[in-house]
């Protein structure tokens, strides 16, 4: 869980660098960023786990660059390296594919096909240009074959650095960085009440990341904000001269806050807001309706994005499974997937319940959703599921009304 003053990499533009072994990925990244981000060596397979480097790069702004292992790695650890590279690819907002040869290889064609299926913008970089007599001709041929932009780059001379920057700016997803956590729910001078229980799950002396990000956005939107813990909620309502336009609560307090809120105040939760901000809210709402069809023999996957040590009040490992088993029976099976350990094969599950995903970027969350859709498995998220299980899903605001 990130603290109050941390800038989460999940909110940054993810630029992934891909290609074959020794295609110049690490050299490109070091030269392009002006920093020694990755180890450079002629030894095949130098890069093992993907290297993630957060930095500010004008005019792109806050970015995370991902240096990946060669996807044609045939070494003893090759399969594991390739799997890590594929995971990095699922997080990538804009892909850079290195072309070290005179023409596209099967590896580069594979990545191009992979990213086109993911609707991820692609930039081809003809690398090691200082070693090629006609690198520009190669770039033209790549553009002709792929219908993508290709630029020439030399990590030795720096040739092409500005061209790469300009191309990346043009490839930024439309309206990238303009999504709001609160969507269109608030305006300037709106009174917003945040209910933020500081229980055993909250890191001592800090706020959890969804609370921090939502609070900052509300400040930017010039809202009037009041923050309270659950036990101070009634006192806060009494102290206010007018009812809040919007109340945002921790999903665990949904029932209590709903029963005690002013009738005119709209209610949502941090997790529900993040369902739209990071994922596919309509799909999550459809998935919530599938909860009613579960039985004691059903199998549910709880998908957490962080890898915190589970505690006795854990929402994903204790509270949601408890609500499900109370309704459907103790025989209901609940599996936990933490961090990036999200199964490729989801066919054995009746329902997936995804956390708010504050620690991952939207691209990666959408790759999970796409996997669930393709395999015909219903999916929802913590806040939406809890609202449904407590009978108030149709009474809260999701921003889709």
How does this structure look, described?
The chain is of the alpha/beta class and 401 residues long. It has three domains: 9-171, Rossmann fold (3-Layer(aba) Sandwich), CATH 3.40.50.300; 191-273, Rossmann fold, CATH 3.40.50; 282-393, 3-Layer(aba) Sandwich (Rossmann fold), CATH 3.40.50.11410. The chain has 13 helices and 14 strands. Strands 2-3-1-4-5-6 form a six-stranded mixed sheet, with helices on both faces. A four-stranded parallel sheet has the order 8-7-9-10, with helices on both faces. It has a four-stranded parallel sheet with strand order 12-11-13-14, sandwiched between helices. Strand 5, helix 4 (135-146) and strand 6 form a beta-alpha-beta unit. Helix 11 (315-328) packs parallel to helix 13 (382-389). It is globular, with a radius of gyration of 24 Å. The two termini are 31 Å apart.
Salient structural properties:
13 helices; single chain; Rossmann fold; 4-stranded parallel β-sheet; alpha/beta; 6-stranded mixed β-sheet; 401 residues
Strand composition percent: 15-25%
Distance between the termini: 31 Å
The CATH architecture of the largest domain can be named as: 3-Layer(aba) Sandwich
What's the CATH H-level superfamily name of the largest domain?
Answer: P-loop containing nucleotide triphosphate hydrolases
**Domain tally:** 3
Radius of gyration: 24 Å
Q: What is the CATH C level class of the largest domain, in words?
A: Alpha Beta
SSE sequence, one letter per element: EHEEHEHEHEHEHEHEHEHHEHEEHEH
Report low-confidence residues grouped into runs of 5 or more: 1-7, 38-47
3D shape: globular
CATH topology description of the largest domain? Rossmann fold
């Amino acid at each position: 869980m990130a603290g109050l003053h941390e800038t989460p990499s999940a909110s940054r533009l993810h630029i992934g660098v891909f290609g074959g072994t020794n295609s110049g990925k690490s050299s490109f990244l070091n030269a392009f960023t002006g920093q020694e981000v990755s180890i450079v060596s002629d030894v095949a397979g130098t890069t093992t786990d993907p290297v993630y480097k957060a930095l500010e790069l004008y005019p792109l702004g806050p970015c995370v660059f991902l240096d990946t292992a060669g996807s044609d790695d045939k070494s003893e650890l090759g399969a594991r390296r390739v799997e890590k590279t594929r995971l990095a690819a699922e997080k990538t907002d804009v892909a850079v594919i290195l072309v070290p040869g005179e023409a596209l290889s099967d590896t580069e064609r594979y990545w191009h096909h992979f990213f086109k299926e993911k609707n991820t913008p692609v930039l081809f970089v003809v690398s090691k240009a200082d070693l090629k007599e006609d690198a520009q001709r190669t770039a033209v041929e790549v553009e002709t074959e792929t219908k993508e932009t290709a630029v020439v780059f030399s990590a030795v001379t720096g040739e092409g650095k500005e061209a790469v920057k300009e191309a990346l700016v043009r490839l930024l997803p439309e309206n990238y960085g303009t999504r709001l956590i609160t969507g269109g729910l608030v305006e300037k001078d709106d009174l917003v009440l945040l209910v933020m229980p500081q229980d055993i799950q909250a890191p001592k002396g800090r706020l959890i990341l969804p609370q921090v990000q939502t609070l900052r956005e509300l400040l930017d939107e010039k809202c009037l904000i009041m923050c309270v813990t659950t036990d101070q909620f009634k006192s806060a309502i009494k102290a206010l001269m007018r009812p809040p336009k919007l109340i945002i609560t921790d999903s665990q307090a949904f029932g209590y806050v709903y029963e005690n809120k002013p009738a005119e105040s709209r209610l949502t939760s941090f997790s529900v807001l993040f369902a739209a901000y990071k994922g596919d809210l309509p799909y999550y709402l459809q998935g919530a309706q599938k909860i009613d069809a579960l039985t004691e023999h059903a199998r549910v996957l709880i998908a957490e994005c962080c890898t915190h040590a589970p505690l006795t009040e854990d929402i994903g490992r204790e509270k949601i499974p408890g609500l499900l088993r109370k309704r459907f029976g103790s025989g209901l099976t609940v599996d936990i997937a933490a961090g990036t350990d999200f199964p490729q094969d989801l066919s054995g599950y009746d329902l997936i319940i995804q956390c708010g995903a504050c620690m991952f970027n939207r691209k990666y969350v959408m790759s999970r959703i796409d996997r669930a859709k393709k395999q015909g498995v219903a999916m929802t998220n913590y806040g939406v599921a809890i609202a449904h299980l407590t009978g108030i899903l149709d009474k809260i605001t999701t921003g889709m009304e």
